[in-house]
Amino acid sequence: MTVKELTEAPSLSKLYPKAVVGGLRKGGGETLPEIEYVRAGVVADPAHVAAYDQVCGFRLTDELPATYPHILAFPLQVALMSEQAFPFPLLGMVHVANRITQHRPLRFDEELTLRVRAENLRPHEKGRQFDVVSEATVGGEPVWTDVSTYLRRGGGSSSGGRKEQLAAPSADAIWHVPSDIGRRYAEVSGDRNPIHLYPLTAKLFGFPSAIAHGMWTKAHSLAAFEGRLPGAYTIDVRFKLPVLLPAKAALTTWRTGDGWAFELWNARKPKPHLEGTITAR
Predict the structure, then answer these.
(1) Contacts (Cβ under 8 Å, ≥6 apart) of 237
(2) Which one, of 79, 105, 56, 54, lies nearest residue 4 by Cα?
């Protein structure tokens, strides 16, 4: 494993053009690069945390939402996936799942060491998928882990089978998602993928309108559980159909034996955007 130690966050404004140009030369591959990005001494900016909390619906406290360190690790993830040795182009990959484990509550003034690597390249019915693993430690103690699963479409062995006929769910909350939420989340996350910004840029990639970030839908869902969360837990989400902006979405939640389960639906028709669980550790 080659370790690349960074003293500052990679510049996303420089990485995105590199990823676009470099992606034109990538034709796929059978292996992921043995590269790990490491950045020590990472401390969250309180003003940035407050802006993130506002966009995602969290209350202002001295603790970080479990989804926030994903924002800190994201530039390292993009740097890794922009490597020449990375087999797939960054644009066109689909974020299909995300699992975050918070081992204990994190204060916004704690100094984190972040590590990011890719692993577990495997077949998928619609192509190939792999995991980008991000970890945070404090004084050598693991405190947070994030596993983002990405799908590279093409070359799969199945069309995905018959689509389920779903019944309309009962809603615990109705979200009225504004048309600019993609731009607002992009400001705090750094994820300026054009599919999230404007209808015109989204149409260039085959979407009828801009779509909400999957990690915003996850964070906003998590915010609905504030006051009921244990100190240590795992929140595991599978992304289904995109949230076309503007949107009306319905959140359904229910108790399980060791935590909670939840689904986010299109409120106008019974089609799921996201499904997930929160499990106490």
Answers:
(1) 97, 98, 99, 214, 218, 221, 274, 275, 276
(2) 79
Residue with structure tokens 């990538």?
26
123 touches 156 (CB < 8 A) = yes
The number of residues making up the chain comes to 281
- Give the residue carrying structure tokens 């499904």: 275
Cα maximum dimension of the chain: 51
pLDDT of res. 166: 59
Intervals of the chain under pLDDT 70: 21-28, 155-169
DSSP secondary structure letters along the chain: -EEEEESS---HHHHHHHHHHHHTT----S----EEEEEEEE---HHHHHHHHHHHTPPP-SB--TTHHHHHHHHHHHHHHTSTT-SS-STT-EEEEEEEEESS--BTTPPEEEEEEEEEEEEETTEEEEEEEEEEEETTEEEEEEEEEEEEESS-S----PPP-PPPPP-SEEEEE-TTHHHHHHHHH----GGGT-HHHHHTTT-SS-B--HHHHHHHHHHTTTTS--SSEEEEEEE-S--BSSEEEEEEEEEETTEEEEEEEETTSS-EEEEEEEEE-
- Phi-psi domain of 123 (left: phi exceeds 0; alpha: psi -120 through 50; beta: other): beta
Portion of the chain with pLDDT greater than 70, in percent: 91
Write the CB contacts of 242 (distance below 8 Å, at least 6 apart in sequence).
Answer: 207, 211, 212, 273
The span from the CA of 131 to the CA of 9, in Å, is: 21
